[in-house]
Design a protein that fits this description.
- The protein has ten helices and six strands.
- The protein is globular and about 70 Å long.
- The relative contact order is 0.16.
């Protein structure tokens, strides 16, 4: 009996330890960022369409954006053509729906004056911006598959500086994460929707994002140091 108990204990100790995840940000407890979130109302409803692959990312910036913003939506899927929640939003006559997506037919907000931007939107309706949260490849596929999104008016912008998403390889330095894209969109059109851009409340998005990037970089450095101790050994000097 004693031998059996000892074997059982050894087996238990050798079994993999599964990390408990936060139910909100879906992060391990040691990297949970919920305590850094300060919610705000951008006066724009953002509908974030998250690809299933993005759900499992260590830094899923679509989810992060959703947690930061009042009245936002996070909807998982690939083909939204028959998605009940998406179609309900699209068919709401009190909303003006557009999608943040580049292309020849997309209205470039950067190249417009504030007055021209404001004229794009109906002041009697709630501006609702759809944003695809996925890689460039999956985003294109999602747009092709989702027939209800293809006819939406498109808006885009010119990135003003390189992305700070330094823990994930981007196709180009100016390719923004979903969170950075949402932040810059608020910067450009928030004022026309009654959001006080000068309050910088939307910078709360970047605060959480930047802290998570730095945290992940610190994990990478520690792992690199453990695997390559010679690189981090201080030189010794002899008299």
């Amino acid at each position: 009996m004693q031998e059996y108990l000892e074997q059982r204990k050894k087996h238990s100790e050798s079994a993999p330890v599964y990390r408990e995840l936060c139910t909100a940000c879906i992060q391990p407890r040691f990297s949970c960022y919920c305590h850094r979130i300060q919610r705000f109302d951008p006066q724009i409803d953002f509908v974030i369409l998250i690809h299933p692959i993005e759900v499992r990312r260590r830094i899923a910036t679509g989810r992060m954006s959703f947690l930061c913003m009042e009245n936002s939506f996070l909807i998982r899927g690939q083909d939204y053509s028959e998605d009940e929640q998406v179609n309900q939003i699209l068919n709401d006559k009190n909303r003006q729906c557009v999608i943040l997506y580049p292309g020849r037919n997309s209205k470039n907000l950067t190249e417009m004056t504030p007055e021209s931007r404001a004229q794009l939107f109906d002041p009697t309706k709630k501006l609702t911006i759809f944003v695809i949260d996925g890689t460039w490849l999956t985003a294109k596929k999602m747009m092709r598959q989702s027939k209800n999104l293809t006819e939406l008016p498109r808006i885009c912008f010119n990135p003003e500086k390189p992305s700070n998403f330094r823990v994930r390889k981007q196709p180009h330095a100016a390719c923004y994460s979903t969170l950075e894209a949402i932040h810059h969109t608020i910067e450009l059109v928030g004022e026309s929707q009654g959001f006080a851009v000068e309050s910088r409340a939307h910078d709360r998005l970047l605060t959480v994002f930047d802290s998570m990037v730095e945290l992940q970089l610190s994990f990478i450095r520690k792992a690199d140091e453990a695997n390559n101790p010679q690189r981090y050994r201080r030189p010794t000097f002899r008299a």
